[in-house]
Structures are given as structure tokens and as C-alpha cells.
Design goal:
By secondary structure, the chain is of the alpha/beta class. It is built from 13 helices and 10 strands. About 45% of the residues are buried.
């Protein structure tokens, strides 16, 4: 069977993760429009028209592309989805928040474009790598307490898939209870003393849209005695590598987390 003829042929991706996944599957020819925030893969920015941000989109431009499918992410894109559906466009909005849900989304997209077998093979390889990381993490003499900061003013801790990846990488999330909250506003920590009280051994910053500034973190009032500040364990992971719930987080993002944890263990374990 010629799988190239299966499924939608003109796809608009409103967020980066489905774009990256379709490129990994060799199905980039189906993509006719992408998010302006897309950075993975880099060539997508040169190859494809940019038709959306995150909270808004150029509906007329999308319709002019005559898509037979639009992929979106989260309830935050509900208004975009609604406008496109009213215009007669097929829209699929995923709402993955956990590692398991990311894998589910990847399988569904692969199946839609007739690449279920290839998608399952990638998923199996990636799951095996995550399992190996988790095993290495369980063997550590001491696991670092990790504060993952998604935003600095106000301080927002990591979303669920990030918290789970911290655990897989060999660390323990300082705010696992907040990770269960799907919306950023519900993960605002509030009083910064709460972070100090949890005494993170490592701070990992991924300030979406701007560069992480470790010197600003170290200068926060009352933070000088925090183990991560005292020991210089203030690190950045680019938001494109960890804060989009798709292939990047399950590969480059978690690999970076794992290296940070292993290096920390070699110095402090």
C-alpha cells in the first residue's frame, strides 16, 4: 500500500511539536503552514509559511492554504480551533501534559499520515532510552532536588511532562504537586521563600522566550544559602528543547537533564 496517499495531504501545524514530528517521519511535504515560534527543525522556518503565534492565528491565511487538517495544542488554542471549524476545516487539538500522553499524541499523528509502523519504531527506541536513563538514576547514591523554573517573574515551576522527565533523568522535582496543574497560572509559586525552603540542589531555568540569567537567580534575596546557588548549580535548557510536548522534550531535553544530573552526582553524590 502506498502510505503517501493515506491521510491528510495539506496540514497546518499551529505548534512546533507536530511539525518536528512530521519532519522526523519524512512527511514534511504534507505541511503547508506552521507556527511562527517553530525552531525545530530549523529548516522548517525556511520551507514553510508562518501562519500562527500561539494564542492567535491568521485565519484568512490558513484558509487560503486550503488545509485538509489542522493540528493544534491545548485549550489555549480553542478559539483558533473554533474559528477554523466554523469555516469547515478539520481540526485536531491535542492536550498532552504527561510523557505518556506525548507518546500517545505522536502515535496518533503517525497513524493519521499512514506512518504508524515508523512511529511505533521511534517510540520504542525512545522509551528504551528513557528506561535506561531511569535505571541509571535509580542507581545514584543520592538524587538531586531539582527546581525547574519555567518563568521568573513570577516564579513558575515546571509542567507535568517536565517534572516526569526530571524524575527519569535521575532528579527529584521540588514542586511535584504543582506539576499536576496544567495551567501556568496554577503553577505560580508565590512567595519565593517556598523555593528556598525546599533547598534545591540544582536550579534548571527555561524561561520561554528569553535567556535564563543565573546571576539574577543567585542575587535573589535570601537565596545565598540555597545549595544550588552556593554550589553554582544554576543551569539553562532552551525552552524549544524541553517546553514543547513532543520529540524534542523526549530526546534533547531529557538528555540534557540527564547529563546535568550525572555531572552533579559526580561532583556531589
Amino acid at each position: 500500500m502506498n502510505t503517501a496517499t493515506l491521510g491528510p495531504q495539506r496540514i497546518v501545524c499551529l505548534t512546533e511539536e507536530t511539525t518536528e514530528w512530521l519532519y522526523l517521519l519524512g512527511q514534511e511535504a504534507r505541511i503547508v503552514g506552521i507556527s511562527g515560534y517553530t525552531v525545530r527543525p530549523r529548516r522548517a522556518r525556511e520551507d514553510k509559511p508562518k501562519v500562527s503565534a500561539f494564542l492567535n492565528a491568521k485565519i484568512d491565511k490558513i484558509l487560503a492554504l486550503e488545509p485538509d487538517c489542522v493540528f493544534g495544542f491545548s485549550d489555549l488554542q480553542a478559539d483558533i480551533a473554533s474559528a477554523l471549524i466554523r469555516a469547515g476545516v478539520q481540526v485536531t487539538v491535542f492536550n498532552q501534559r504527561s510523557v505518556a500522553q506525548i507518546f500517545d499524541m505522536l502515535y496518533q499523528v503517525a497513524a493519521v499520515v499512514g506512518q504508524a509502523e515508523q512511529g511505533l519504531a521511534w517510540i520504542a527506541r525512545t522509551r528504551a532510552r528513557l528506561a535506561a536513563m531511569a535505571e541509571a538514576g535509580r542507581a545514584l547514591p543520592r538524587r538531586p532536588r531539582v527546581y525547574f523554573e519555567e518563568w521568573d517573574e513570577p516564579c513558575i515551576s515546571g509542567i507535568r511532562w517536565v517534572s516526569e522527565l526530571v524524575g527519569i533523568a535521575g532528579g527529584d522535582d521540588c514542586f511535584p504537586e504543582l506539576a499536576l496543574m496544567p495551567l501556568g497560572k496554577d503553577r505560580i509559586i508565590g512567595e519565593p521563600q517556598r523555593i528556598v525552603d525546599r533547598a534545591p540542589d540544582m536550579v534548571v531555568g527555561s524561561w520561554c522566550g528569553k535567556k535564563f540569567r543565573p546571576e539574577r537567580v543567585a542575587a535573589r534575596p535570601g537565596w545565598q544559602a540555597v545549595p544550588a546557588v552556593r554550589d553554582g548549580e544554576l543551569h539553562e535548557i532552551k525552552s524549544a528543547d524541553i517546553l514543547q510536548p513532543g520529540p524534542a522534550a523526549l530526546t534533547d531535553g531529557v538528555e540534557r537533564l540527564h547529563r546535568l544530573v550525572m555531572d552533579w552526582s559526580a561532583r556531589h553524590g
